[in-house]
Amino acid sequence: MADGNAFAEGWSARFLSILRIVSALLYMQHGAQKLFGFFATPQVHAFPLFSVMGLGGVFEFFGGLLVLLGLFTRPVAFILSGQMAVAYFMFHAPKGFWPILNGGDLAVLFSFVFLYLAAAGGGAWGLDHMLRRKGP
Q: Is residue 5 part of a domain?
């Protein structure tokens, strides 16, 4: 009978890449909303570039793009994790303690997913991995 750990070892780096890719695609939507007005609602629209929300949109869209590609995954994910922590405490925490009630549950989740990616890296399917394999 096959050992379950062999499956986990063989696929864990791939599933890490899937987590990275899906998280980045979802994250980039928030940046596209803030920067370009894509997926805009009456409550959320494109913001001026030189504003706190505009700067957040730059981090979300272009930082998310780097994470999507798996390029500079660890340092970019660390910065994005911090950005989401700051966003939570600036915009959500003042509305109440519980993230589900203050609308900050997604910010908390993104913060911890990006913190995990900062520690674990981008997985098998990323430019970081490809560049590391071609090194000297």
A: no
Structure tokens that stand for 83 in this block: 């950005």
Q: How far apart (Å, rounded) are the C-alpha atoms in residues 44 and 118?
A: 29
CA 69 to CA 47: how far, in whole Å? 26
Q: Are 134 and 90 in contact (CB under 8 A)?
A: no
Q: H helices of 37-87, where?
A: 52-58, 64-69, 73-87
Longest dimension (CA), the chain: 60
- Domain assignment of residue 37, yes or no: yes
Does residue 4 fall inside a structural domain? no
Our count of domains for the chain comes to 1
pLDDT 10s digits, 64-104: 999 999 999 999 999 999 999 999 999 999 999 999 999 99
Alpha-carbon span 62 to 67, nearest angstrom: 9
Residue 51 domain flag: yes
